[in-house]
Design a protein that fits this description.
Pfam families: Sdh_cyt. The chain contains 10 helices and no strands. It starts with a helix and ends in a 6-residue tail after the last helix. The N terminus and C terminus are likely disordered. The structure holds protoporphyrin IX containing FE.
C-alpha cells in the first residue's frame, strides 16, 4: 500500500522540474495534513460518539463543536478554503502527472494512482455530504439537534449507505496514504527503514479511522436515531 518511495520522489522531482510552483505544492501538501487531516480525525471521533454513546453522545459532540468560538471563521479558513485549494490544485497536479504516465508501469505506481483516484472521489463525496448535512443547517431545513435523525435517514437508505462507505474509505485512504507521502516530502522519514515503519503506522491509521466512521454509520441505522426523523422528513431531498 504505502511503498515505492523512490518512485514517489522521482515523480515529485518531475513536477519540480516543471516550473516555479514549488511553494504552491508545499502549501498543498501541508494543508492536506494541517488542517484537513486534523479535521478528519476530529470528525471521525465526533461521529463515533453515535456508536459509543448513542443519540445523546452524538448530539453533545455536535453541540460542543458548534459552541466553539468563531465557528464560521474556523469553518471557512480551517475547512472550506483548504478543501477547495487542496482539491482544485490536486486535480491540476493529477492532470499534469497524467502527461507523464507512460514513463512508469502501473504496478509500480499503484499507490500513487490510488491516491489520485481517492482524491477525486473524496472531493465529490465531500460536496455531496456537506450539502446533505451542514448546508441543510445553514438554510434552516434541519437544526443541529436533528442531525442525528438526518444521518439516520441517510444511513437507512441502502444506496446512500454504500456511497457513504465508499466515500469514507476513499477519504481515509487519501488521508493515510497522503500522510505517508507527506512525511517523505517534508524530510521527516528519510531512510528506507523509517519509511517502512511509517507505512505500517499509516496503515494502522487507515484501519482505525475507517472503523470509527463505519461504526458510526452503522450506529446511525439504529431506531434510537429515528426520534426527530419526523422533523427531518420535512426535508425531502434525502428521503
Ligand atoms: C460515517 C461518516 C460520516 C458521518 C456520519 C458524517 C456526519 C456529518 C455531520 C452530521 C455533519 C454536520 C455537522 C454539523 O453541522 O455540526 C458533517 C459535516 C461535514 N463532514 Fe461529515 N460525516 C462523515 C464522514 C465524512 C468524511 C469522510 C469527510 C471527509 C473529509 C467529511 C467531511 C465533512 C465536512 C467538510 C463537513 C462540514 C463541516 C463544517 O462545516 O463544520 N465527513 N458530517
Amino acid at each position: 500500500m504505502f511503498k515505492d518511495s523512490e518512485h514517489f520522489e522521482s515523480r515529485k522531482e518531475n513536477y519540480e522540474m516543471k516550473g516555479n510552483s514549488y511553494y504552491w505544492r508545499k502549501l498543498h501538501s501541508l494543508l492536506g495534513v494541517i488542517p484537513l487531516g486534523g479535521f478528519i480525525l476530529v470528525h471521525a471521533l465526533t461521529n463515533y460518539q453515535a456508536f459509543e454513546r448513542g443519540p445523546e453522545g452524538f448530539a453533545n459532540g455536535v453541540h460542543f463543536i458548534n459552541s466553539l468560538p468563531i465557528v464560521p471563521v474556523l469553518e471557512i479558513f480551517g475547512i472550506y478554503l483548504p478543501i477547495l485549494f487542496h482539491g482544485i490544485y490536486g486535480l491540476y497536479m493529477a492532470y499534469q502527472s497524467n502527461l507523464n504516465s507512460g514513463q512508469y508501469t502501473y504496478s509500480r505506481n499503484w499507490a500513487f494512482t490510488l491516491q489520485r483516484i481517492t482524491g477525486v472521489l473524496t472531493f465529490i463525496f465531500v460536496f455531496w455530504h456537506v450539502y446533505q448535512t451542514r448546508f441543510q443547517v445553514y438554510i434552516g431545513s434541519v437544526t443541529h439537534e436533528e442531525l442525528g435523525s438526518t444521518m439516520h435517514q441517510i444511513a437507512t437508505n441502502p444506496a446512500f449507505f454504500v456511497m457513504y462507505v465508499v466515500g469514507v474509505l476513499a477519504a481515509v485512504f487519501h488521508f493515510s496514504n497522503g500522510l505517508w507521502a507527506f512525511l517523505i516530502s517534508w524530510g521527516i522519514t528519510i531512510s528506507p527503514r523509517a519509511q517502512k515503519v511509517s507505512s505500517y503506522i499509516c496503515m494502522v491509521v487507515f484501519v482505525l479511522v475507517s472503523a470509527l466512521f463505519i461504526l458510526s454509520l452503522v450506529a446511525f441505522t439504529g431506531d434510537e436515531f429515528k426520534e426527530t426523523a419526523s422533523a427531518a422528513l420535512a426535508w425531502t431531498n434525502i428521503g
